Fold this sequence. Notes:
Blueprint: E1 4-8, E2 13-19, E3 32-33, E4 40-44, E5 56-59, E6 68-74, E7 85-96, E8 99-110, E9 121-122, E10 125-126, E11 142-143, E12 146-147, H1 153-162, H2 168-184, H3 274-283, H4 285-296, H5 308-316, H6 321-326, H7 336-356, H8 360-368, H9 371-389, H10 394-409, H11 425-437, E13 439-442, E14 445-449, E15 456-462, E16 471-473
Parallel strand pairs: 1-8
Antiparallel strand pairs: 2-6, 3-7, 4-7, 5-6, 7-8, 9-10, 11-12, 13-14, 14-15, 15-16
Amino acid sequence: MVPYFGDFAEDATVRFVFNTFSSDDPSASVTITNLVDADLKVHKDGSVTQIVTDGATITIDFDGITGNHMVAIDTSVHADYSTGSDYHIRMEGTTVDGATINAFIGHFSIENRFNEVDVVKWLGTAAATPTVAGVPEVDLTHVAGATTNVSALATNVDAINTLSAGATGFAAIDTVVDAIKVKTDFLPSATAGAAGGVFIAGTNAATTVTTSFTTTFTGNLTGSVGSVTGAVGSVTGAVGSVTGAVGSVAGNVDGNVSGTVASVVTKTGYALSSTGADLILKSSTFALAMADAVWDELLAGHVTADTAGLLLNDWQDGGRLDLLLDAIPTTAMRGTDNAATAASLATAQLDLDTITGSDGVTLATTQANYAPATATAMSAAQTDLDTITDTGVTTVALTSAAITDVWSTDTLTEAYAADGAAATPAQLLYLLLSACTEFSVSGTTVTCKKLDGSTTAATNTLNDSTSPTSRTRAT
Length: 475
């Protein structure tokens, strides 16, 4: 028997399960193979034509439990899933316990069952006959879970329904509304803050007022005032500070101005006394600062003709020196100082003649002081050179003595070059001596000994132990 899984709403997802067992032991669960989503087929209302896109998916061994499988069918994927129809699901070509199975595994419907309920009793008590057919009578005893006296509800509702414009209830309401209207009629019908609008005060008043005020404010203005175009009669209290710019002050400022004043355009009717002016010039911080600034001014920027700045600039740069020289009397240069200078120049000229040889005798004498010493040194150097380069006998004698020392007198230190390394003459001679006079043969190894006859100097390898034809050094 194919199980029926119920009546579902349209576009719902239908889920159901089925199990597989061993053919040898129906109580033993086994898995199912060769079953994929495409092997699940859905038929509508007994049609042999399958729904092409059936939305069916399979989960084999659900939750990892062998033999338990779940099928899910999404009925929203195809228009064939519609209300008032039944659907059968089958699997095709699957394998259970080695056997191929084709089987229907389920049946469901979409809004295709009658679910009408005919209520004749409530908790065992016959329901009251409704006043209006099909509309049940409701007897309210509780509202929001609390016992409520609803016995007068109908009476009150009827009383409200019977009120008319002339009734007592409406007359009282009209009186209150009229009183409110009298007060609200004075309010302009405009946006607060706009032209003709309402100025709203309070902590939540964030409206910018863009209109003019023609009345007097006795309270405080805590916001910013864009500008005051009319005259301000007077400010009787203290003004804490003005943080913005003040365009101009046309009247008098009797107190102090602690900030910076950009400029004073005009001020008439006042003059400094001579005593006051003298005091300012002598001790005023401003006057002293001006004097310091004048003396500390750089001269480079003062180039206007006929100005003191230009003259000082010329002196600093050495300019107009011709004017200074023209102002010095020429007779001042023809005195004792001039004669002394001439004598010094004459002495210097004599010294120069001595050095350069303008006087032949003096130059010759100077040369005689150095030439003999130089000739003697050169002669001694020539003698040393002749000795080194051999003028005929000296070098040959030296060479012969050296050869005699090498071959007949000097003893060569015993040494052997490593295999493959370049050798000195002494190393080559000792290796030849060892290879020819001090050696032993064992198999294919020839061991050459040092002068002591026991220490190995080198080894050679023969190509054959009985009839060698070649050997090569090994160590």
